[in-house]
Amino acid sequence: MDILSQTPPAADHRLPYGNGPLQFGDLWLPSLSRGAKAPVVVFIHGGWWQATYPLDYAGFLCRSLKAMGIAVWSLEYRRVGDAGGGWPGTFQDVAAGFDFLPTLAHAYPLDLRRVAAAGHSAGGHLAFWLAGRHHVPPGSVLHTPQPQVALTGVVALAGAVDLRLIIDLGGFLQFTSGKPSVVELMGGKPADVPDRYRAGNPGDLLPLNLPQMLLQGSDDDQIPPRLPERWAENARRQGDPVSVTIIPGADHFDVVDPQSKAWPQIAAAMRHVLGLA
């Protein structure tokens, strides 16, 4: 039985990071010895940025990371079809959710020296965008001051990490509007809204100056198989350390399913970017 057909587990805490109904996160906390603090994965779910797909399915991954001694802050955010979703609200929510970490750390035992971002599918795009947003031009609506919390690394699980490559490689999905998913998110194609892509596409924000790990199944039918390698080529040319792992026989959701054969490699990647390997 795949994770989409199962009842997801509940988080330890569901907490708002903003005033909107979709501006919240699920916090998962491992058992710790007295005085200890947990490393943190900020996780961003996928669903091609569409309102139809909420964060719940990520609960299985979050629960498994919790069992490994890792805290998880799993973000919900406004998506295409939600009021204020798409450009720029989707990005602003993810940034606000990440920047809420210092507030969380006042109440919960989180080690803000060991924080990684990770995302599945469209969430991979948003995780990599978080890692590169320090390059967003000052005039952009997405520009924010230097984040208080530094990332130790970023992980994409079947990640749509580069919007231009998604378009070039034909990896977008068409939705009820008849527009490709990337175009719905950004409000146009790159030629139509170039400033948006320069601020919202991780490939335009290289180098990230962080370790990057991209894991994808060989049987993924949603993300183009050339995308991870194309990303790696572009990032390495600019000096970034990048690891690409293609997992034989795994599909689009196996990479977030702790019961799949792909999970040991996913777990190892999470440990690695947190310095736990």
Verbal overview:
It is a single chain. 48% of the residues are buried. The chain has a single domain, classed as Rossmann fold, CATH 3.40.50. With 277 residues, the protein is α/β, with parallel strands linked by helices. The mean pLDDT is 95. An eight-stranded mixed β-sheet has the order 1-2-4-3-5-6-7-8, with helices on both faces.
What tags apply to this protein structure?
single chain, Rossmann fold, alpha/beta, eight-stranded mixed β-sheet, 29% helix, 18% strand, 277 residues, 9 helices
Q: Beta-strand level of the residues, as a percent range? A: 15-25%
Tell me the major beta sheet. 8 strands, mixed
Going by helix content, strand content and strand pairing, the class is alpha/beta
Enter the CATH topology name.
Answer: Rossmann fold
